[in-house]
Design brief:
With about 325 residues, this protein is of the alpha/beta class. Helix content is about 40%, strand content about 15%. It is built from 10 helices and 11 strands. The strands form 3 sheets. It has a 5-stranded parallel β-sheet, sandwiched between helices. A 4-stranded antiparallel β-sheet has the order 7-8-6-10. Strands 9-11 form a two-stranded antiparallel ribbon. The longest helix has 25 residues. The relative contact order is 0.10.
């Protein structure tokens, strides 16, 4: 595993290198600034596998560096662990919005640091296997995830993978800066869309639905992940989470707007279930994420409402969502 560690403090760089090498990570490159890091990235014959980046540095800070790395094809999915003294929510949110995978605060515990790197190593291995499985395949041949499987939603602000969302939750619990909450949204009709579409087509529709949910959650400071089976997990400050009933009504209206969820081939009318928020219990451990399960369980008690009287057909698109 090739790691690039970036920090303007020479002592921290030396500590990172010594810690990593002591645990078997011998291929470590050091950079003293964001500019130096980009120079080393450009000069690398083989792409780096993971990054450890300080936030506060002279010139380009670590968040800007992360954003630039995410714009490079080789590093769109590479693990990025932020290592910083900045523990305010604003910095944490900005880091994850820029594409950070994980976040460790200084002074860091070496055991925790290595745990984070091993998680990053595992993530990188899984990403490589998934890439190898689809390399050279036509759209029709690409692996179609099961309906219950999570799908990464890219290029929508606030959306992160399920693993990254869990990392964010653990960091927020550790900082104890506010009461965190989670609620789930289910769009049941996605099961029908999944059964009648290819992997690429289903991803397009899920992304349309994700954009609708993103618009409905503006101002909540929530991070969202599609966790599979038509369910979106939303996490944010408990006091800023929206009322379930109003959110459900808003979503049903937008989901059935053909300008928002492009429709053409699969006749359906969308509904939505929005569960009551769940919060961590007092004295729960940092890594106890059972309240996320409770948020999904709350969907079973969420009131159902008939969709709009008309139906439309869910789309199959051959155009890029980035357009």
């Amino acid at each position: 595993m090739r790691i690039l560690a970036v920090d303007d403090d020479e002592l921290i760089r030396e500590l990172l290198q010594a810690t990593l090498e002591a645990h078997g990570y011998s291929d470590v490159t050091l950079a003293e600034s964001g500019e130096d890091a980009l120079s080393k990235v450009a000069a690398a014959g083989t792409p780096f596998d993971a990054f450890m980046i300080d936030i506060q540095m002279p010139g380009m800070d670590g968040i800007d560096l992360t954003r630039q790395l995410r714009d490079m094809a080789d590093y769109r999915d590479a693990p990025v662990v932020m290592i910083t003294a900045m523990n305010q929510k604003d910095y944490i949110d900005r880091a994850f919005l820029a594409g950070a995978t994980d976040y460790v605060t200084k002074p860091f515990d070496t055991t925790e640091l290595i745990t984070r790197i091993r998680l990053a190593d595992k993530l990188q291995a899984e990403t490589r296997r998934a890439t190898a499985a689809t390399k050279g395949a036509t759209p029709a041949e690409k692996y179609k995830p099961a309906y219950a499987e999570a799908i990464a939603i890219e290029e929508i602000k606030g959306y992160v993978s399920n693993g990254v969302l869990q990392n964010y939750v653990m960091i927020m619990k550790e900082q104890k800066q506010f009461s965190i909450g989670a609620f789930a949204i289910r769009v049941p009709e996605l099961e029908r869309v999944h059964a009648a579409s290819s992997a690429e087509e289903f991803a397009y529709v899920v992304t349309d639905v994700a954009e609708v949910i993103s618009d409905a959650l503006v101002g909540t400071q929530a991070f969202v992940s599609y966790i599979g089976a038509g369910v979106f997990m939303c996490v944010g400050p408990r006091r800023m989470l929206p009322q379930p009933e109003a959110t459900r009504d808003h979503l049903i209206t937008m989901l059935n707007d053909p300008e928002l969820v492009y429709c053409e081939e699969i006749a359906t009318s969308f509904t939505a279930q929005v569960g009551e928020p769940a919060s961590p219990k007092l004295l729960e451990r940092r890594d106890d994420l059972r309240f996320l399960d409770r948020a999904v369980e709350n969907l079973s008690a969420a009131p159902k409402r008939n969709p709009l009287s008309h139906s439309h057909k869910v789309s199959v698109r051959a155009i890029s969502h980035a357009a």
